[in-house]
């Protein structure tokens, strides 16, 4: 399966796939192995500050688009 087909499958199941990170994003900036790049991505994308910022951004985008929050 190629990347576009994989993304189509994920989108079918409700996942957002327009902003995916890869080891190459890290390796374009840092001299590291594939394994190290995966660890960096895991740390960066699973920390509490990242989650909090994403939820704040989702709340802002919903409000900006006049979407009401479920209470």
Detailed description of the structure:
It is a single chain. The protein is mainly α. The protein is built from four helices and no strands. It is flat, with a radius of gyration of 16 Å. It has one domain.
Search tags:
single chain, 71 residues, mainly alpha, 4 helices, flat
Overall geometry comes to: flat
Q: How is the main sheet built? A: none
Instruction: Give me the number of helical elements.
Output: 4
Helix content: 55-70%
Q: Supply Rg.
A: 16 Å
Distance between the termini: 40 Å
Number of domains: 1
> Beta-strand level of the residues, as a percent range?
under 5%
Topology:
Elements: H1 3-12, H2 23-27, H3 34-45, H4 48-64
Briefly say what this structure is.
With 71 residues, the chain is mainly alpha-helical. The longest helix is centred in the last third of the chain and has 17 residues, at 48-64. The protein has helices at 3-12, 23-27, 34-45, 48-64.
């Amino acid at each position: 399966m190629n990347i576009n087909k994989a993304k189509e499958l994920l989108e079918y199941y409700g996942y957002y796939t327009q902003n995916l990170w890869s080891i190459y994003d890290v390796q374009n900036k840092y001299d590291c192995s594939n394994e190290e790049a995966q660890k960096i991505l895991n740390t960066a994308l699973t920390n509490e500050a990242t989650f909090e910022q994403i939820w704040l951004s989702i709340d802002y985008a919903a409000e900006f688009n006049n979407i009401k929050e479920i209470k």
